[in-house]
Design brief:
This protein is an alpha/beta fold. The chain has one domain: Divalent-metal-dependent TIM barrel enzymes (TIM Barrel). 43% of the residues lie in helices and 14% in strands. The radius of gyration is 17 Å and the shape is globular.
Length: 270
């Protein structure tokens, strides 16, 4: 299976679960040295780094782009697709559509995580889901026209109250006819919300389009209690063809965590 490692260049996200935070040249070099096929990019926005710069680094180091994250839209700019303010929602949708276009330059999908927002206060769950569905319909069309998928990530209950588990999210995508939107199965979030990680992946099936390979404590696999072999077995069972990406805390040893993650992926894939 294809492997990727997260690379973050957003100062406001420096404490997040991303492996490499170095200057781009160093991060790309380290990703290659640790044996990864691609990088998963978290930038401040679609114009933060020139497309030509990323393309040149990919070519020089023999790496692809697995996905681009949109989290800076929330963390840096306070944008959400389900914000009570129409102006904020418009800004969020514009930000994501531009990130879709940015990622498409490399054949890479954009990820929607924290920018999905949540319901509460003056916004009911039904209203929030209607807003989410409307925005995703627009994004779905844009992704299709750009020739890429779009990745929706169910998060744990402490980060959103929209969708926390894979199957309800998959059913939501299907019910709204979102053909170009797939799911991100983040094993850390799943360890909090799913009763059985392997069964959850099996139930979501072909809707699984990206995987974040993290142990139960959000560190490199082998640091917690996730049954990694069972997870990998189901990914093979459902004929998963996407990336397995390291989005983890590193405890100050980024290269060590990256190598430990790669070792666990290879070991489970044997």
């Amino acid at each position: 299976m294809k492997t990727a490692v997260t690379l973050c260049r957003v100062p406001e996200m420096a404490a997040g679960p991303f492996v490499f935070h170095d200057e781009l040249e160093n991060s790309f070099a380290k990703a290659k040295a640790c044996g990864y096929d691609a990088v998963e990019l978290f930038f401040a926005g679609p114009d933060a780094v020139p497309v030509a710069t990323v393309r040149e680094l990919c070519e020089r180091h023999g790496l692809g782009v697995a996905a681009v994250g949109s989290g800076a839209g929330m963390v840096k700019h306070g944008l959400s697709l389900t914000d009570p303010s129409q102006e904020v929602r418009r800004g969020a949708l514009d930000f994501i559509l531009r990130m879709v276009d940015f990622g498409a330059q490399f054949g890479a999908p954009c990820i929607l995580g924290s920018m999905q927002g949540k319901w509460g206060g003056e916004l009911s769950r039904e209203q929030a889901l209607a807003l989410l569905a409307g925005s995703l319909a627009t994004i779905d069309r844009a992704a299709g026209e750009a020739g890429v998928k779009f990745i929706y990530e169910p998060l744990n209950r402490y980060e959103t109250n929209l969708f926390n588990r894979l199957l309800p999210a998959a059913e939501f995508l299907s019910a709204n006819g979102l053909k170009n939107v797939v799911l991100l199965a983040d094993l850390f979030h799943m360890n909090i919300e799913e009763a059985d990680l392997a069964q959850a992946l099996r139930d979501a099936g072909e809707k699984v389009g990206h995987v974040h390979w993290a142990d139960s404590n959000r560190r490199a696999m082998g640091s917690g209690h996730t049954h990694a072999a069972a997870v990998m077995g189901v990914l093979r069972e459902i004929s998963y063809q996407g990336f397995i990406s390291a989005e983890i805390f590193t405890d100050g040893d980024a290269e060590g965590a990256a190598r430990k993650t790669m070792e666990s992926i290879r070991r489970c894939g044997e």
